[in-house]
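pls design
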């Protein structure tokens, strides 16, 4: 029976039909079913596709970007919407292009409206930024001119940039050498070994090359007997004993029998006493022989005796030095150098030496002055009056002799005797300005103001000098008689209009009375007569700054620098004026110009150290010391720098060095005393105060501001020191 043919076999499969789907099969499509794949550069079907979507590759890339689009809530902003475009996946048509063009035109128009304002604001911001943070090129613009002075050898000596890298690898650490102990030398001297180096093979193979005990490497070959060695330990011990004997003789008193050695601080004090000379014992012996030869060849040559005594003093043989002094005064009786020999610090025999020189020397002015100084220094009061009478008998016109005698009596508390000496001085020198002023000072210091007024009136009638008028004005000023002081000032200026201190006093009196216009007029008139007076320029500038006229003060200082070039005081005031006004950049620029104008000014270098930031101050101080090695202001700045870094020991050393080089600088004493108040003991504070009183400083910016103040005219040196130190602030 024939089978019936299924009716659907010849019919096309329905849409979506997958063969075998009922039994679990899945449909798949092969490359042969759909044809070859399209290339990335093939055009798309859309003939009006926008640029960037006209190829198959662009379309695929766009689809991938659309898949990566983030439409999360975190990417949504309340005012701006989503960060990306919601319609970026849509077709880009002509109306979209037209809308973009309209928006671009609007943006361009709005940008042109605010262009000038925006460019001006950007320019101001750039200028402000460059002023606050200048380029390296601008910072070194003033130094580029000096590059023309650099020679070819200096250019070639500049190291390469690579020299600063890998320094540790290129420069290995040096080998450390340890001194050989004395026991090592003693042991080998006994055994007779002269060769004490170590064999490199023993270091490399330590222990493999041990000497054979059979006699092949015997330590003592028969031909070598133990020698004495190259070092004599006995001589080394003798040298040490000699050196110790010299040290002990330097710190002890061998004449009076009373020792001055402090048992507790002996080892500490000994370090400062030992190296008073730089040579060894053999050099001292050679110098002693040479000086002996000079003395024997020319016994009447005073420097030979002085040098010989100095040598013996340095080596600690004080008695030998004293003997040489006495013999030198006998060999050179009529030469003034015998007085120089008296200045040696050998106090016990100085009295006898002074007696010899006093007997032989002629009584001229220099001899008398030195002898009086000697008597005062060693408190020889019994011989002072006789010596003074002898001096003024031979030199009655010498004002300094009368003044020294009067001061000696005044310091001793005998004011009537000082008055009598000055009265005799008036008879010998009736028109002497110095004697008149000394008498006025004596009366004013003892609160005899009416007598001082009468003396000044007589002095103005007999010796009407500018200084006499100045002292008269000062006396009335400090006593509160302002009207009398102004009248005297007007009278003095009619006679001495070229004396700048009179104009300064007139301006300061008006300034104290709050008459700023009259004070300004006085300073201006004084500058017309005395254009080279630095204090007048400074007073006028500070007056304008005090009343708030900063621009006028700046103009005054610029004018003063034109009239007085290379004046460090004027440059310093200009720098400080800008710094007080808060213009630190301008003050730094002015300081650079000032150092170019006055490269060897210590006050400018000292101020420049503290204008720098803290990390650069040390470098600046080194430059200052190179330029002004012995300037007291630079040394004081270095001491303050160590003080700010809390290096107490170094700061104290530099303070001592400063007051030793320039004991007349009151500012150094004030800072030193302030330093000891904070970091020293009471003994150290009293020592600084006592040394300051003995030095009697008269100069210093801060010191003069207090010592010359009207309210402090009767204060002593110690009181002024306390006042200045109290006003100092260590905020440097």
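designed seq:
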């Amino acid at each position: 029976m024939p089978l019936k043919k299924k009716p659907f076999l010849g019919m096309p499969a329905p849409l979506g039909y997958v063969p075998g789907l009922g039994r679990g099969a899945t449909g798949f499509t092969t490359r042969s079913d759909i044809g070859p794949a399209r290339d990335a550069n093939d055009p798309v079907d859309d003939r009006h596709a926008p640029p960037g979507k006209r190829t198959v590759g662009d379309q695929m890339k766009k689809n991938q970007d659309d898949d990566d689009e983030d439409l999360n809530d975190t990417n949504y902003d309340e005012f701006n919407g989503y960060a990306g475009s919601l319609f970026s996946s849509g077709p880009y048509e002509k109306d979209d292009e037209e809308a973009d063009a309209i928006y671009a035109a609007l943006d361009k128009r709005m940008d042109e409206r605010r262009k000038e304002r925006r460019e001006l604001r950007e320019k101001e911001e750039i200028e402000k930024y460059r002023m606050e943070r200048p380029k390296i090129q601008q910072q070194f613009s003033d130094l580029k001119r000096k590059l023309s002075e650099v020679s070819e050898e200096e250019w070639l000596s500049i190291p390469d940039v690579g020299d600063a890298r890998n320094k540790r690898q290129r420069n290995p650490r040096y080998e450390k050498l340890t001194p050989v102990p004395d026991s090592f030398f003693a042991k080998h001297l006994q055994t007779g070994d002269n060769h004490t180096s170590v064999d490199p093979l023993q270091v490399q193979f330590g222990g493999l090359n041990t000497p054979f005990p059979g006699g092949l490497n015997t330590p003592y070959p028969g031909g070598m007997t133990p020698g004495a060695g190259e070092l004599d330990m006995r001589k080394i011990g003798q040298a040490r004993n000699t050196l110790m004997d010299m040290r002990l003789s330097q710190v002890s008193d061998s004449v009076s029998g009373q020792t001055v050695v402090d048992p507790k601080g002996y080892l500490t004090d000994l370090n400062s006493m030992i190296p008073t000379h730089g040579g060894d014992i053999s050099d001292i012996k050679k110098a002693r022989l040479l000086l002996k030869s000079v003395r024997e060849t020319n016994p009447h040559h005073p420097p030979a005796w002085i040098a010989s005594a100095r040598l013996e003093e340095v080596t600690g043989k004080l008695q030998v030095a004293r003997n040489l002094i006495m013999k030198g005064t006998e060999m050179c009786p009529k030469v003034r150098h015998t007085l120089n020999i008296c200045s040696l610090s050998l106090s016990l025999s100085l009295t006898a030496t002074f007696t010899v020189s006093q007997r032989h020397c002629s009584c001229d002015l220099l001899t008398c002055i030195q002898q009086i100084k000697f008597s005062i220094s060693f408190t020889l009061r019994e011989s002072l009056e006789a010596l003074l009478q002898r001096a003024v008998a031979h030199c009655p016109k010498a004002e300094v002799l009368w003044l020294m005698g009067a001061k000696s009596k005044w310091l001793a508390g005998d004011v009537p005797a000082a008055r009598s000496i000055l009265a005799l001085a008036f008879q010998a020198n009736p028109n002497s300005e110095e004697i008149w002023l000394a008498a006025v000072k004596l009366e004013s210091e003892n609160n005899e103001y009416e007598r001082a007024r009468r003396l000044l009136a007589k002095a103005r009638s007999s010796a009407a000098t500018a200084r006499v008028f100045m002292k008269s004005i000062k006396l009335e000023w400090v006593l509160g008689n302002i009207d009398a002081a102004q009248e005297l000032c007007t009278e003095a200026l009619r006679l001495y209009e070229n004396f700048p201190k009179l104009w300064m006093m007139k301006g300061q009196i008006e300034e104290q009375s709050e008459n700023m216009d009259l004070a300004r007029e006085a300073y201006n008139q004084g500058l017309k007569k005395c254009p080279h007076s630095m204090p007048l320029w400074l007073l006028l500038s500070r007056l304008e700054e005090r009343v708030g006229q900063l621009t006028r003060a700046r103009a005054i200082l610029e004018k003063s620098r034109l009239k007085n070039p290379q004046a460090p005081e004027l440059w310093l005031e200009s720098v400080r004026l800008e710094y007080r006004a808060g213009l630190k950049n301008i003050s730094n620029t002015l300081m650079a110009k000032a150092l170019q104008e006055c490269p060897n000014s210590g006050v400018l270098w000292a101020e420049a150290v503290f204008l720098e930031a803290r990390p650069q101050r040390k470098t600046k101080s080194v430059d200052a010391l190179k330029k002004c090695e012995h300037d007291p202001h630079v040394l004081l700045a270095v001491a303050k720098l160590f003080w700010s870094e809390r290096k107490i020991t170094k700061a104290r050393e530099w303070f001592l060095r400063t007051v030793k080089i320039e004991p007349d600088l009151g500012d150094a004493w004030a800072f030193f005393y302030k330093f000891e108040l904070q970091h020293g003991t009471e003994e150290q504070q009293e020592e600084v105060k006592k040394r300051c009183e003995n030095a009697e400083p008269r100069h210093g910016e801060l010191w003069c501001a207090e010592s010359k103040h009207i309210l402090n005219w009767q204060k002593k040196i110690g009181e002024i020191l306390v006042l200045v130190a109290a006003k100092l602030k260590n905020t440097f």
